[in-house]
Structure formats: structure tokens, C-alpha cells
Design a protein that fits this description.
Number of domains of chain A: 3
Distance between the termini of chain B: 68 Å
Helix content of chain B: 10-25%
Strand content of chain B: 35-45%
Number of helices of chain B: 5
Number of strands of chain B: 22
CATH topology of the largest domain in chain B: Thrombin, subunit H
Helix content of chain A: 10-25%
Largest sheet of chain B: 6 strands, antiparallel, barrel
Order of helices and strands of chain A: HEEEHEEEEEEEEEHEEHEHEEHEEE
Structural class of chain A: alpha+beta
Number of helices of chain A: 6
Order of helices and strands of chain B: HEEEEEEEEEEEEEEHEEHEHEEHEEE
CATH architecture of the largest domain in chain B: Beta Barrel
Strand content of chain A: 35-45%
CATH class of the largest domain in chain B: Mainly Beta
CATH class of the largest domain in chain A: Mainly Beta
Oligomer: heterodimer
CATH topology of the largest domain in chain A: Pdz3 Domain
Largest sheet of chain A: 6 strands, antiparallel, barrel
Amino acid sequence: MNGLAALSDELERLVARASRAVVGVEQGRGAGTGVVLARDGYLLTNHHVVGSGRALRVRLPDGAAVKAELVGSDPPTDLAVARVRAPGLSHLPLAAGARVGELVVAIGNPFRFERSVSLGIVSATDRSLPGRGGAVFEGLVQTDAAINPGNSGGPLVNTAGEVVGINTAVIPWAQGMGFAVSSRTATWVTSVLIQRGVIERRRLGVAARSEALAPAVSEAVGQARAVRVLQVSQASPASDAGMQEEDLVLGVHGEPVANVDDIHRLMVLRGTDAVPIAVWRNGERLHLLAMAGARRAA
Amino acid sequence: MSSSPVPDSLAASLSGCLADVTESVGRSVVSVTARRWPSSAVVQGPDLAFTAAHSLGGASRLAVRTSPEGPELAAAVVGRDPALDVALLRIEGARLEVPRWRPAEGLRPGSLVLAVARPRAALRARLGLLAGVGPAFRTPWGGRVEAGLDVELSPRPGLAGAAVADAEGQVVGLVVSGLGRTRRMVLPTGTLTRVAEELLAHGRVRRGYLGVGTQRVRIPGPLQGAVGHDQGLLVVAVEPGSPADAAGLAFGDVLVELGGTPTSDVGDLLGTLADAKVGEPLLARVLRAGALHERSVTVGVRP
């Protein structure tokens, strides 16, 4: 057998295995895709697939349709968790991260065709896209695997059979560009939704972006990436704490942060109003304390 | 005023002592080349030496030198303990001078210490102060350290695998990274002796293994009473086929207690696993979908 045939067989086996954890998600006239992440029936899909509040149905891999309950939804990341009670469900693990150039398979339920699969590579990681109402989706995985509307909420699977992203958005006018919420973000958002049903985000009042550090700074602070503050809103928790534009946020709650998603994650997981923040300013490490109250996701 | 030092001044005699200690300890410090950064290793037995594991990267064979003039010797990694950032090397055909190792008991805060390193074959020394001797503790990765040697040294690189010696030239510890790339830790003699025995016997330090990835999370208010504390570990990954998987732990669980020990952070979990015997059943208390469940997990060996 030549290499191409071997690759083809390998992909076929991968898709057969992974597909057992992929379900159709139907609400009213809309349909999307979901992926089962735990044996007791918790599945992940997109908020925009299940957001209308109407009754949810899940189409299992064997074709049976069952009722599902919405566990929780997080509009800022366009992720939602639902639960079906069905015995013998397969589930897929979330990957620790995606690598640019790795082969991925998008599995979905587009246009209600049962099971549709497309192959591509990870084109980029850590991409940002503007969302509805001025929101920004962060840390997205970009792929050239074909992603169509019904793929929404379906998994982007790597060759190890792990979910590297949840397919979420297509830019209608762009060719060959699909985006997925990264497994890094999905990991904490999903587990918090399973646990609490809601994500209580805290707002610091800054615009910021992830930055690779210069070698000298990296050596001094002991990390390779940090988050640069671009703008501080007036009368916000960040400005009250003394945060300034150009500050480099190194850590939150005593843990290092590499990107904005890390900051959201640590603030949500720790769940306290007082948020200790370590920043690097003029060659010095400063310790700030921001008071950020919880707000329900709009 | 003379510009040359007075031969019998206190300064000259202190300086002479420091140089003597450096020279004598230096005979038991070798230079290690494995990655871009050169590091040092401290002799533990005639052909054995301890170094900082992070300085080796993934290398299993490397080169060692005992002096700038001396030949390059081949060395192999006997084993490493990433939780302590330490690795034991066997240097082929070497008959090295074993230093006098001094245990942490009886060390007094405020004593002067010398860090003796041999990056790139030439000897280098740095003077420091033993700021304190703390109790036993665990590294963030669950490695047990028998005494917390708090050694103040100027924050410059090049000390990985260096010996820390007292004023009499006895080795009291090994400099490793331990707490992140720029924060140093000094492993005391007792820890190194124990780790050497384990590495020589098994090639690694065996620790209990569950097969979960976790992140620290606040336990929802209404459940804090039932649990007894306010932080737990959110399960964000379960290794297929691992002890955790077999016990039914699932993505999204919050592990709040293992083997009777509250798991408020990952150090609690690793500590419990480090002390647990392989094959021993432990009771895990987990929160799932707002309710407290109990599961029995059988501790495995980290693959």
C-alpha cells in the first residue's frame, strides 16, 4: 500500500471513531452540530445554535432523536453545553492545544446532511474576530477545512482523535477560512458550565492583547508571553487599581498569563471580587489589586 | 596608604579562605554540556553526579569535563526526577573526588555559603548568605524536599547544578531551578541521598498517578458547607484508560478530596499521590452537576 492510501485509511478510521461522539443539535428549524465530552452525556455546541430558548433535540449517531436539556451558555465565546441522557455514548477528549500545520478534520451536520467531513490543516492559532455587539472572539483556531453553517458546534479533530476546536464561524465573503473556538478556551468554559450552568465574567475595564516578550524581558520575568494593556477605561476596576496603558500583565491570582483568555479563565475559576494582578512596568514587577464584581453574561 | 593588600589583614584571610573552599569543593564539581546552556554537576559517588534536570533537556547521553585541561568524558543519565528538577548522571570510567556532604540539621541562618559552579569547564564561585532553613515542603509538581534552604545569591544565570558549600567546604545542597525558570531552589543533602537511592534502583522516582488534568476553582457557595473548604480542582482532562477514567471521574467534575485530604490546589493532589502506594484504593469526593459523589480510585504508576 502506498503512503497516500495508508493516510486515507488512517483518516477513515479516525473519522469512524470520532463520529461516534458527534451529534446533530436541533432547535426549532435550526440545526447544528455538537460533540459529546463526557460519558454522562454532556455535550458541547455553539451558543448561536441553541440560544433561542426553544426545546432542544439531539440526533444521536445511530439516527435516534432524543430530547436534551440546555445546561448553560456563554455568548462571549459562542459556546453552550447541553446534556442528553442516553446509554453507551462515546466521547472525545479536548486537546491541550493546536499546532499550526497539523492535519485536522471538521466533522459536522451541515444542511442536515447526515455526517459531513472535511479535511484541512490548522492555518493559524490565536486569531481574533469581531463578534456581534462589539464583542471580540479571542484565541481562535483558523483552518482551511471547509466549515459550513450546519458545522457550527461541531468538532475540529486532530489526528490523535482529540478536539482542537469547536467550529464556530465562517466569514461569508472569505474563501477557505474557517474558525473554531480553541480547545484551551473550550476546556475551562465547558467545565465551568457543567459545574455551574453559567459563567460569571468579571470586567477589569481594559483593552489588551497577547504579546511575545523580547528575550531580555522574558529572562527577567520568567515567561515567554504576557498581555499588553492597550487602553484602560476610566472609573473601571483596572484604573482604580492603578493600571496604566502599556503595562504588561504577567500574572493574575498568582499564576502566569500568556493571553487574554488566561485572564478571563483565572478570574472566573477563582471567583473572587478581589483580583491580584502582577504587572511589569519600567523594568519593575508591581502588584496591583483590582476589585472586579461579577456580572452575568449578557 | 598602600595600594597592595596587607598580607595578614582580615580581608585577605577571608578572601584566602573563600578561594580555598572554592578550590576544594571545585574538585567535586564537573561541567556538563547537553544543551545551549552549560551547567554543572556535583559528585555524589566516584562515577555519579547530580545536576539540574532542566539543563539537560531531553538528552540521555552527554559530555562532562572535570577541568579546563581535562579530557571530555561521556556520561549517561541514570534517571531524573522532574518534580525536583534533578537528574543523576553516571560518568563512564570516572573516579571522581566525592565531597563531604553535610545534612541540613544544624545549619544556622546567617551563615556564609559559597555556590561553586563549573560552566564551560572553568570554575566559578559566588558568595551568598544562608537566609533561613525552613521545614520540609513540596514543589509545585509534588516533589518532597526535606528542608527549605533559603540561600540568597545574586540573580544571575549559570548556577544550574552548582554546589552550595559552607565555610568549611562541606556541600550542603545542589542548586536547581525548581520554581520556574528564574527562581532557584537548593536541594538539601537528605533529599539528594533519598533520590539517588530511588534513581539507582528504579531509574525514576515513582509517584502515584491518577490521569487527570486539573485547574483550581472556587466551590459554589451553597456547597462549601458540605465540602468543608472553598477551593477544589476542576477536572479538565481525563486520560483514557487511566485510573481516573476507570473510576468514572469525568470532564467537568470538581475533585474536592482524595484519600481524606482536601484538594484545594494541585500541590495537595500531587502530595497525596506522592505518598500513596501504587495499587492502593483511595476515596475521591467529587462534585458533579451540583451534587457531591464518592468514587473509589486505584492509584497507578505514572507511565
